[in-house]
Amino acid sequence: MKVSDASGNQRKKPSGGFVSAEADARGKLQSRQREETPEEMKVRKFNEAIRDAERSTLCFNLDMGMVPIMNKQTISEKASLALTKMAASKEGKGKSVPSQDVIAVIDDVTSLVTNMEFYGTSTKQYKGKGATGFCTIPVKYQFKDKDQKSYAEKTLRDKCDVKCATPYPAIVRECIKQAIEHVRGTHPEDFIRVSVVTKDFALKVARRPPGKDLKWIEYPDLLPLPTEAYEVSAKKVPDGLRIFYLPSEPTEDMLFGSPAKEKNVSPSKVRRDSKNK
């Protein structure tokens, strides 16, 4: 688009009105990006942290032997061997290595890993459910996207009995834990799913009763996160932190569908129906 000044000269109007510009010593315009505000930075870092977490899985029961170790290269090798050993135990054929088909599946999963991190500096004795005295360290595997992560996580659980979790920031993880505990109080046998809705800075809750092919029941309300959740680098949860809202149970209409309602039914039809009963 061209505009004219008072002398009749024409010049092109620069496109985009959201980027400021400055002239250098020679009069040449230099574009300058607008600086983001502290609030915008907090939101961006929160969204980035959630995206990073949701394409990652944290494995925290990998059997890395009976002796604590600290060398990162050794820990990395032990983590890979743990998957093979745990897959062989899961397969239950009395061998130290699983079948070739299972090995191929594990190799496929590990080939999708784009980054691996350890949550700690050395392995320590595992004290969770099913502990047998072995040492471990939480291992974070990162993948290209959420689809690859979901596939890898399901495979590791099914083939190796690996315990996996999404490595959300500490405060977000605590809020999810509180929501799960609340739902589990009334539905102790159900599977519970809590996801983060970044655009609303909130949690979304669903549960599924045990049984084959049953549907997820979504809770109607989003649960707003506390402002402390923006501190994605926090390693500890502030004392007394509680999410203000807890999930309210879905109504019968949401569970079973709205009951059928008779609309515009003539009185004569009602009388005929009652006589035929």
Overview of this protein structure:
- It is a single chain.
- The longest helix is centred in the first third of the chain and has 20 residues, at 72-91.
- This protein folds into two domains: 38-167, no CATH class; 169-255.
- Helix 2 (72-91) runs antiparallel to helix 3 (100-111).
- The strands form five sheets. It has a four-stranded antiparallel β-sheet.
- It is of the alpha+beta class and 277 residues long.
- It contains seven helices and 14 strands.
Overview features:
single chain; 277 residues; alpha+beta; four-stranded antiparallel β-sheet; 7 helices; disordered C terminus
Quick structural summary:
The protein is an alpha+beta fold and 277 residues long. The chain is built from seven helices and 14 strands.
Low-confidence stretches: 1-5, 11-18, 258-277
Placed side by side, the strands forming the largest sheet appear as 6-9-5-10
Number of domains: 2
Major sheet characteristics: 4 strands, antiparallel
How much of the residues is beta strand, in percent? 15-25%
The span between the termini is 78 Å
**Considering DSSP H and I runs of 4 or more, what fraction of the residues is helical?**
25-40%
Number of contiguous helices: 7
Give the averaged pLDDT, no decimals: 84
Query: Would you tell me the structural class of the helices and strands?
Result: alpha+beta
> Helix and strand succession?
EEEEHEHHEEEEHEHEEEEHH
Give the radius of gyration: 28 Å
The count of strands amounts to: 14
Q: What overall form do the CA principal axes indicate?
A: globular
